[in-house]
Amino acid sequence: MPKWKMFLQKKNNLILLLLCGILLLVIAIPQGGKGGGVMEDAAASENVEGRLKQTLQKIEGVGELEVMLSKSEETSFYGEDDGSVQGVLIVCEHGDDPVVVERITEAVQALFDVDTHKIRIMKMNQTKQEENR
Fold it and tell me: Are residues 99 and 42 in the same domain?
């Protein structure tokens, strides 16, 4: 009888072989469930930034704006294991108006559950305002 058949006939060896197979399967499964990667995470981040920009521009007095989100490096923005937004930077046409700043801050807090000290709203410089028009 060949050696491999004798090896498989022993119950302990069969269990060991089965466990090795399961271990290989677990190693081969991509982490995070999505199997996303850097490119998908970047695209998702740009999409969220774009949607936030569109939404904030609808707020009275905001005017032109740019949005940047800082996220956790360990996880992705969407999904079960999603990371949280670490900070939000918004540069807008009327970023020096306290009423506009408060409106934007409240909107960002409602959407991302970010502390106020992690949200920065700055006035856009004149050159950038003219480029956007």
Answer: yes
Please check whether residues 73 and 117 belong to one and the same domain.
yes
Judging by DSSP bridges, how do beta strands 85-92 and 65-71 pair with one another? antiparallel
Q: What pTM does this model have? A: 0.60
C-beta of residue 59 within 8 angstroms of C-beta of residue 103: yes
DSSP the chain: --HHHHHHHSHHHHHHHHHHHHHHHHHHSPTTTT---HHHHHHHHHHHHHHHHHHHTTSTT--SEEEEEEE-SSS-SSSTTPPPEEEEEEEETTTT-HHHHHHHHHHHHHHH---GGGEEEEEPPHHHHHHH-
- Host domain of residue 3: 1-30
Q: What is the pLDDT of residues 100-124, one digit of tens each?
A: 999 999 999 998 888 999 999 999 9
Q: Are 88 and 122 in contact (CB under 8 A)?
A: no
